[in-house]
Amino acid sequence: MSLSADTVNYCKKILALDPQIRFAGKIVDEELVSTARKDGVVPLLDKDLAALAHHQVSVKAMMDKMFTDKLGNTDWIVESKGKVKLLTVFQKDGILILSTEPTSDHHAIIEKIKNLK
Fold it and tell me: How far, in Å, CA of 52 to CA of 59, rounded?
């Protein structure tokens, strides 16, 4: 994972948008290039499972492109699990991945991300 100061700072800005955000990461060209985790949050996945989850996001994004011509671009995807919500936000320069508390208002979080300068 190659980290640049800009992408690390971006992930930290994302964390600051909402107290329900546990983790933010940026994927560019199928590589996780930056991450930030909320202080005090214990990861739910070990290192290997986390890497697999990040890869799964990239694979889903590639597969999703098959439907773009017929359905339009995907803006975001939300998976609601028992212990966490997983948000995938498609951006011009890559994919933003988030985990939030299961009770988070994902619509509000996504709007905050869209409005972030």
Answer: 10
Judging by beta carbons within 10 Å of its beta carbon (0-12, 13-18, 19+), is residue 98 exposed, middle or buried? buried
- Sorted by where each starts, the structural domains of the chain and their CATH numbers stand as 5-115 (3.30.450.30)
CA 19 vs. chain centroid, Å, equals 15
Q: In 3-state terms, what secondary structure has residue 92?
A: coil
* pTM of the model as a whole: 0.88
What value does the mean pLDDT take over residues 78-99? 95
**Token couple for 38:** 């909320």
In the numeric block, the tokens 């939300």 are attached to 78
Secondary structure of residue 113 in the 3-state scheme:
helix
Residue 62 confidence (pLDDT): 86
**pLDDT given at position 100:** 98
